[in-house]
Write a structure and sequence with these properties.
alpha/beta, Aspartate Aminotransferase, domain 1, Oxidized Rhodanese, domain 1, four-stranded parallel sheet, about 15% strand, globular, Rhodanese-like_dom, metal-binding, Aminotrans_V_PyrdxlP_BS, Rhodanese-like_dom_sf
């Protein structure tokens, strides 16, 4: 645990399924490559040879973690590229076919069905895309699969789900596919499995498996694709012959070296499964204690110890996320790729858990490189969140009912003040007032921000009471937590004649965060 990553005292990051901070050893590997072994791995001179050694070292470490042949792994920019390559490899040889049946898990990451539809259209193929149903635990319906996979060209499933942590019955799926007269090709999304779940990729005869480095303490922009020997393959990128001519383009050596360093840490036993399981259980217990009405959406069995998905029925997930964020706890409502989508979680809907649970779902996710100090701090803040919610729930729900116009992006951009621009704005308007429109509970959770100017607190939920009381010609700077509501309110107040008004573009969250309030 010596290389565990502790976040700052004011921010506890609990959204590891979205991305992770870079492991110190991975950062060191990147710096080593950037400063010393910066050569092109394709160059025949000494600098190129040293770079090639870095490349081979990383591939060897990754192969050892996955227990796969090194020559079956292709370094990519991430899982999305790997998925595109796998889908293209399956569909490209089928050009001219009248129709193809492709099955994919109903809870699959959207990158998979989107890639299938995209490449089907590009290649002029008629695809029958069928989602594989799942049960309330997020596991695939194997009898349905056995019935519908008979004439399928490709089956796509996940090793583990990114929203709920549900672990797929890959062995059961393999038995179904093996029993078919003609076995379809099989793509398994391995993103959430890397470093967390042992999978017998060879024994299960999985044909393609994409992975992403930034989900496991490597930087963004590096990933890999496993391709089983003998599986159809069509390269996505042609060029100078890199990666055995399978993925051309100069290798992202700093990213590759970083991913290799992460895998070396795994092989060295740095991350202990017992510590991860204990952290998971402590967080789960803390949540249940803080929120007695909480309902768990993650399965109790066959679930990654990194993931807890839960709902507070009747409370929109945004309310709860705002509360957590005010306390410096970084969680999410599901996939980061769908964070701007206000619809209920399609994953929970596919599991049959209902719209009430899907609309109030929250995902807490930690990495295998768990930091005990962060877990201790998170548990304290979860308890405080429970107290605040119990006292201020009516205020939170009232805030959701406040009618604000859609943000005029041109207007809010023109009158936006960033954290970097704030001192200059204050110099021009020394008598300016920051109007903090956060709710009382948000102020309790976060405390005061040191902005060095006069501050007035006017809760947005009480907007009708104070909107007409502010002087029209006084320089005002609207501020909320994230900058979204202040941008909407700016549009409204400009329309009502407030000519000396701006808003803090990225909200108070964009300023240096104060220490969490000790309660």
């Amino acid at each position: 645990m010596s290389d565990a990553i502790a976040t700052t005292s004011s921010e506890i990051y609990l959204d590891a399924n979205a991305t992770t901070p870079i492991l110190p050893a991975a950062q060191a590997a990147m710096i080593r490559v950037l400063s010393d072994n910066f050569g092109n791995p394709g160059s025949p001179h000494g600098a190129g040879i040293r770079a090639r050694i870095e490349l081979d070292r990383a591939r060897t470490a990754v192969a050892a973690v996955l227990q796969l042949p090194a020559n079956s792994l292709i370094f990519t920019s991430g899982a999305t590229e790997g998925i595109q390559t796998a889908v293209l490899s399956v569909l490209h040889p089928q050009r001219g076919a009248a129709s193809l049946r492709v099955l994919y898990g109903a809870t699959e990451h959207k990158a998979v069905p989107e890639a299938l539809a995209h490449w089907g259209e590009i290649l002029g193929l008629t695809l029958e895309l069928l989602p594989i149903p799942v049960d309330q635990h997020g596991r695939h319906d194997l009898p349905w699969l056995a019935e519908n996979a008979k004439d399928a060209t490709l089956v796509c499933t996940m090793a583990a789900n990114n929203e709920t942590g549900a672990i797929s019955d890959l062995a059961g799926i393999a038995r179904v596919l093996d029993a078919l007269p003609v076995r379809p090709l099989w793509l398994v999304d391995g993103v959430q499995a890397l470093g967390k779940l042992a999978v017998d990729w060879l024994g299960l005869r999985i044909d393609y498996a994409p992975f992403s480095g930034h989900k496991l303490h490597a930087p963004k922009g590096i990933g890999l694709l496993y391709v089983r020997a003998g599986a159809p393959f069509t390269r996505l990128l042609a060029g100078g012959g890199q990666e055995g001519n399978a993925r051309c383009g100069t290798e992202n050596l700093p990213g590759i070296a970083a991913l290799g360093a992460v895998c070396e840490a795994i092989l060295a036993g740095q991350w202990q499964a017992d510590a991860l399981a204990l952290a998971h259980q402590r967080l789960k217990t803390a949540l249940l204690h803080a929120f007695p009405s909480l309902v768990m959406n993650s399965p109790s069995q066959h679930c990654l110890p990194t993931t807890i998905n839960f709902s507070l029925l009747g409370i929109p997930s945004k309310c709860v996320l705002d509360l957590f964020d005010s306390l410096g706890l970084r969680l999410s409502a599901g996939s980061a790729c769908n964070s701007k989508n206000a619809k209920p979680s399609f994953v929970l809907m596919a599991m049959g858990l209902g719209e009430a649970r899907a609309s109030s779902a929250i995902r807490l996710s930690i990495s295998p490189n768990v930091c005990a100090a962060d877990i201790d701090a998170a548990i304290e803040r979860i308890a405080l969140a429970g107290q605040i919610l119990q006292t201020h729930l009516d205020d939170m729900l009232q805030l959701e009912q406040v009618a604000l116009p859609d943000e005029n992006l041109e207007l809010s951009s023109r009158y936006a003040v960033t954290a970097e621009q704030l001192p200059a704005w204050q110099a021009v308007y020394p008598k300016g007032v920051l109007v903090d429109i956060r709710e009382h509970w948000e102020q309790i959770a976060t405390g005061a921000y040191p902005v060095g100017m006069m501050i007035e607190h006017h809760s947005l939920s009480q907007l009708p009471r104070w909107l007409g009381c502010l002087a029209l010609d006084r320089p005002l700077l609207l501020a909320c937590r994230s900058g979204r509501r202040s941008g909407q309110l700016l549009s409204l107040m400009r329309a009502k004649g407030y000519t000396q008004i701006w808003h803090l573009a990225d909200g108070l969250a964009g300023l240096p965060m104060p220490s969490a309030v000790e309660q």
